[in-house]
Amino acid sequence: MKINRKSMYGYLFISPWLVGFLIFVLWPLIQSFYFSLNNMRITPQGLQFRYVGFNNYLDVWLRDMFFIQELLQFVLHIIVRVPVIVVFALIIAMLLNQKVKFQGAFRTIFFLPVIVVSGPVIDQLISQGATTVPMVNQGVIIGVLTQVFPMWFAQVIGELFNQIITILWYSGVQILIFLAVLQKIDPYLYEAAKIDGASGWECFWKITLPTIKPIILINFVYTLVFLANSSQNTIINLIYMNMFSATRGYGFASAMAWMYAVIIALMLLIIFFVFREKEGPKRARKVKRV
Amino acid sequence: MAVPKMRNPLEFIKSDRFTTKEKFRIVRAKIARFLFGFNDRAGFLLRLVIYTLLLCIGFVYLYPMLYMFVTSMQSLEDLLDTSVNWIPSALYTDNYARAYSVMNIRDSLLGSFLIAGAPTIFQVAVAALVGYGFARFDFRFKKLFFVLMIFSFIIPPQILMMPTYRLFSNLELTGSLNAFIVPAALGQGLNSTIFILIFYQFFKQTPQSLYEAAEVDGANQFTCFFRIAVPMAGPAFIIAFLFSFVWYWNETYLTTLYLTSRSNDLTTILLQLQQFDQNFAAMYPVTENSPHRINEGIRMAGTIISVLPLLIIYFFLQRYFVESVDRTGIAGE
Hints:
The complex is a heterodimer. Chain A is built from 13 helices and two strands, in the order αββαααααααααααα. Chain A is mostly helical. The longest helix of chain A has about 40 residues, at about 250-290. Chain A is globular and about 80 Å long. By secondary structure, chain B is an all-alpha fold.
């Protein structure tokens, strides 16, 4: 009897969220899928639906000139940027984790962009060229890179340098997450390793990295979701444009949004896969050796 | 080899306790220890490297802000003059005056505070309730709901955008504050999942015996929530308030969708910044030899004005922002 009453209270407390989820997530999700199967026209009498099956999806891939192009760009950006952001956040967090004076001041600086950053502000800064480091000459870098790598890759790297500050600005939250977990690692672990003659380098690979592995995964996912939903993203603007365009409309835009979601889900799966794959065999080997 | 203590270098060199060769060795060991460190103490070189790196990265982080500030203080002559790079030749605030008038500050500031403030109150209140529900009670499908909550954070909002927009316009919610308050009050506001997780983590950590004692004394669940849980969750409330406020303030995606699709009076500072160039052109029409051309200085002044309220908030309350990550429990426990 008591358990029943308790679970009733549980439902009562989460009921606002549950209602919200049904109205603002689940129902729109179903509707959006239904839209994507239809050709929708906005007429004075209201919306007109014409069932077209999966034609919208075909159109997204075959007829739209920009989608595949933007998608490739986006995937390339993600592949380059997400690891850069995460690795960079880890390095800064490790630096801050030393016994550094003014640690608070540095944390304040590194977190500042999270507060300030928003679509229009970033747009303004990029258009003024305030997001490039003035000392780095981009032409030289690209020149060197094109000799070693194929052109498209060199361009991606060049752009990375070009946008280095924006990229750094996106790593504020990740730095703090890493810092929080680094400070929770038991110092005795390091002491024991040091006594056994491990160098700082070995400590990093054998103690730090395995301990924070789940957090690296979290940071990867966070960065990916954040980049995918940021207003700098051209695909989102493309969807938005199609949504209000006279010839395309909701149906087409919905199909595009779904395809975009599938791509992001695939990337998330890849990230999960990479992180799980490495953990499995290693543990097994360790057990065997013991 | 033992290295003796050395209080005064001159006295040490003059003293007769060691031979010259020994002195040489001791000094060398001392320098090596100073540079490379020993035992737990980091050496001078390592510390030098760490501080240099941190300072460089810190500079890179601050560079856009500095650039923004400096450019906004420069007059047109300074902007064109290549010899003026960082320090404006005179104190020049006309840019601010112009940006101020273009951005329609009084209305947009009020709008921004409304958009950021009102949904935040609902969002935080509901997140506390839901977090408490998840943390304290066991019920069927709890795990499923939890996963669904995280799922709703990860799915791209673009999928939901169109049906939600239609729903809102059918309910006559668009163009008003309600478009933000209603989802927030139902736990689907901006990043609501994160706030629910913060409260969940917080209420998990409070000792269960407190609630049990209250229940024995005859308190019902709501008394428990309002008299025990809420008073103890002060820091969580502050964090949730601040972040929710900042996120709603910086939100332009939803505001563009819900507020500008129909002409109305509610506007925010960031929407004004987004349309800065058009508004400027409308206000100061470009004519021959017009002195009122838009330039980087004016744009940057507008940008500074739009981030200034947040900067002030951050300056006073940065402790809560920075410590917040520890509280979310993301980092384990």
